[in-house]
Amino acid sequence: MTVLVPTMGALHKGHQALIKRARELDKEVVVSIFVNPLQFTEAADLEKYPRTPEADIQIATLAGATEVWFPTYEEIYPNEPVQISAGPIGELYEGASRPGHFAGVLTVVNRLFEIVKPKAAVFGEKDFQQLWLIKNHFKKMEIISVPTIREFDGLALSSRNVRLTESDRNAALIISKALKEPARMAEILATEPEFKLDYADIIDEQNFQIATDATKNKRAIIAGWVNGIRLLDNAVVDTNS
Ligand code: AMP
Which residue in 4, 135, 190, 198 has a CA-CA distance of 20 to 30 Å to 127? Predict the structure, then answer.
């Protein structure tokens, strides 16, 4: 039995943390690297998605992967894919900005599970809504999550970060700064003119509805763009704040 770590490549320390976690669970760790067209809603984003296969093999192997698998489109979708609905939560937040995105995610994850037949799979909290939907849909699979890995200054690692210029990167820091002060999130984000807000909310982790005073597990979620590059991040909110 193996543990699967699904990725889209351009691997970084965030992915490495997932692979290390997988390796703690089993001595066989398959890292899949597949840029899934079904989950992209913009052709330009798909086209510009970074692809670094040689470095990926090294990074994955160093972290403990026993197999780095680059499936072809035909392997994943030998027939016209029947997309798995992500339900109402899949329409909120990321799903509202990227219609069909989560159906594409669930569809590819389902195919990866069918092919690899892992005993468990590891995903990052960085994509919190994705993690939630995967846990909710694949109830029989053991889904393990890993906290978000950040740069020294707070920026969440992301494959898309390589597209940020130095000044874009500075602007992007407003996201992790805002997450540290959830009560003032919108105000803080508004101080950065280069950051174009999509959403910034404190939600109930149970159901993605806006958190109330009674909410036990709150999470701050933020997404937006810097120079056209979509960035997202999230953090647990102390229940007392
Ligand atoms: P991606 O290659 O961006 O599709 O991501 C593959 C997996 O790595 C997903 O489960 C992500 O949530 C996870 N991931 C991406 N960035 C990070 C990060 N900074 N820290 C932890 N996990 C991450």
Answer: 190
